[in-house]
Design brief:
Length: 222
């Protein structure tokens, strides 16, 4: 992977989160202006912001893994020797990877049928794909209208029938996407632990570190 691709991979969550925050702000502002300025209402604004907020939260989980910002109690970790600390960190990240994998399976199985795709067989681990499943590509959201630019989706997911609202597969796509990103970030953390670049999965003192850095910069300016 070249440096440009690596840089993009590192900024996936940041780019999506920034875009979502911008859209939420714009839609909310437009709805307020419409309501109080023109006595009107953007009917799809509330549902859109709810879906965007869901995207924000789920993508934020993988972003927090990348930044080591999930809550953690490190009082016992700090009492251990470096070797024992690294072993405990590897065990913790292995548990997190297994958890993320199971979440990814569940997320795929829930979303797949909305995209006319098969879910996986097996209760805990995927043992293949379902041979028989119910197509749910025709399921729509409640209020968000289907834009003309997405008209191609009608032939792919709805047997050529016109969508009045956007299909649910679009907002629900964040489920497998966010879980795949979280698994990817935990795998990155595992590699960093194995190579000795870090000794724990989370850093519970990131706020103190940032305050110390800010204090040092202030002292340098003075």
């Amino acid at each position: 992977m070249d440096s440009h691709s690596q840089s993009f991979a590192d900024r996936i969550e940041e780019t999506l989160i920034a875009s979502i925050l911008g859209l939420m702000t714009l839609i909310t502002f437009a709805n307020v202006v419409a309501r109080y300025g023109f006595n009107a209402n953007i009917l799809w604004a509330l549902e859109t912001t709810v879906f965007l907020f869901g995207w924000l939260v789920l993508l934020g989980a993988s972003y927090a893994v990348k930044k080591g910002a999930h809550l953690g109690v490190d009082i016992l970790v700090n009492m251990l020797a470096p070797k024992a600390r690294r072993i405990l960190g590897l065990f913790a990240v292995a548990v997190c990877i297994a958890f993320s994998f199971l979440m990814l399976k569940g997320a795929w199985d829930y979303w797949a049928n909305f995209a006319n795709l098969p879910g996986t067989e097996g209760r805990w681990f995927p043992l293949g794909f379902e041979e028989k499943y119910r197509d749910k590509g025709w399921y729509e959201v409640n209020d968000i209208p289907h834009p003309a630019i997405l008209g191609w989706m009608e032939n792919v997911f709805n047997e050529g029938e016109e969508y009045e609202k956007i299909p649910r597969l679009i907002p629900y796509f964040v489920l497998p996407l966010s879980m795949a990103l979280m698994l990817f970030r935990f795998l990155q953390a595992g590699i960093a632990l194995w190579s000795g670049k870090m000794d724990r999965v989370v850093a519970s003192h990131e706020v103190e570190d940032e305050l110390q850095q800010a204090s040092e910069k202030l002292m340098e300016k003075n």
